[in-house]
Request: fold
Amino acid sequence: MDRLVAFAVSRRFLMVGLFAAVLIGGLVAFQQLNIEAYPDPTPPMVDIVTQSPGLSAEEIERYITIPLEAQVAGIKNLKVIRTISLYGLSDVKLQFSFDYTYDQALQQVLNRLSQLAPLLNNAQPQISPLSPIGEIYRYRLVGPPNYSVLDLKTLQDWVLQRRFKVVPGVIDVTSWGGRTKTYELQVDFNKLVANGLTMPQLLQAVSNSNINVGGNTVNIGSQSAVVRGVGLIRSIDSLANTMIASNGGTAVLVKDVANVTVGEQPRLGIAGENQDDDIVQGIVLMRRGEQSSPTITRVEELVETINNSTILPPGVKIERIYDRKDLIETTTKTVLENMVLGIVLIVVLQWLFLGDLRSAIIVGATIPFALFFAVSILVLRGESANLLSVGAIDFGLIVDATVIMVEAIFRRLAHTNRMSASEQAAISAKITMDMKQHAILTAAADVSRSIFFAAAIIIAAFLPLFTLSGVEGNIFGPMARTYAYALAGGLLATFTVTPALCAIILPAHVEETETLIMRFLHRLYMPVLARSLANRRFVLMGGAALVVMTAVAVHLLGLEFLPKLEEGNLWIRATLPPTISLQEGNSYVNDMRKLIAARPEVVSVVSQHGRPDDGTDAAGFFNAEFFAPLKPAKEWPDGEDKDALTARLLAQLQEKFPGVEFNFSQYLQDNVSEAV
Reply:
């Protein structure tokens, strides 16, 4: 280390260039750094969703859920099987140990499902694409007054879904709300019998006609033309004119025995927003393991492209409801604010205690160097940052080594001021930069061992975090690595940039003075020290008693799975009576949504009642969820905070809707908690 310090002092302007390069490179890396709100704490999980409309929950359990459980049981590293059987829906969640990656677990499940015997009604199990932190973007489709939710849902299913799925990093899009278009046959059985037909014949004819078939080729001159039969149903008329059979040489068409109309699929869920009781909503899902920041950027670019093109009919637009980017920007802002505040506090405290502003600035320079050094390493290694990993960095520990180095150099340079005036004048005449460098090198050599010993203690305290595995490893592993990168950056700055800045900024002679605050603390501390030394036994007994009291108090502390991150929203879950119908429950849901939206702190409210058509959110008509983004706290009524808002809303909801259970959380927090 002495050689490194000597090189840094002799090439001090090169070290300043290194400092600038790390800052500039760190700023560039910070723009590219993927920042997540939460680390994904969940083990590999595979969710098997099977729908069979019309079957009761008991039949779903007996004929679908239990066979699926039996089929996947015994897979290696499978730890937990959780199942839900609802009307028309089976949901089987498989939780694996961390010995498997998600892809490995998925492959094992697919291998087992490929050997599954046919299920009742030919139900087909599907793998849900949902993940705890996968919902990155929510939107709704809006159109002119002449567009119904059926029209908007058709655009969502046939136009938007496939465009979002091709975005790199996106695995699927879940549609919520709206009405799914169907063609319905209202059969006149008297006409059917009169034509000598049966229902199976009618169904078979319609099924066979709704396909395109290929033929051979035919040569027309020198050209070859493809022969094909186009039978795909595109309208009511094409379905109505479908031939069923021939009766006495006359073709019997569908319209001869049935009335063809446009209908809708039985609804499983309804979405609403503010005063609009029925909307079409889409949820963009990110693939597991992808980075959210670039994926969200690509989704936003696609939304802008669609809205500014003719992909959608005139007047139909995509409106954003939720964007993970808001939370990421809040996280980024928090990190930057902490860095600036840390620099200011450390510079001020160093100035107050040492009495020299220049040395305080040198100490403060270590913070951005260490932080941007860590950011650069994260980007180079392709790792992500989150508020837990970056926000947990203790700037006091990072600059601890720098403080020791600067104070040692400051004292060494102040040594000449403790000589007599004649000695100081004689030496001062001969002092050159070489002697100043010698003073810096001597000071660095004196404290280098102490610095490394202090760093070793800090590293030893973090070693257990590197050995964690499973959920704990997923949560604290990124924090430990980020802290290690920042600590390495701080040590690098201590032995390179700090001596170089001292050689440039600090004068050859400094005066060591006792500041006002140090004199006050000194007068306060000396009597305490004298009494402590005079009563050593009582002091040690008091320390031991404090340790015992601390050990007892630890058991009284509350526990939280994850630190609470302020997301700036509310996620409210309402549990209605289990047998309530969708229509009756939705009338209550609409009233709840409007009550929540009436609060001045709330920007808007989106409600979800029931479940989406693809069954990925396993819930019955008894379940309703509300997403309420909140205004900035400075715009809230005086004296109001989030806890008070939650208590007030809960009281209002319980008063107006007795018997309904309400649970308050946050959007991302609810997803993570539900998965774990």
In short: Residues 570 and 589 are 16 Å apart (CA to CA). The first strand starts at residue 35 and ends at 36. The chain has four domains: 2-38+328-514, 43-130, 181-211+229-264, 569-675.
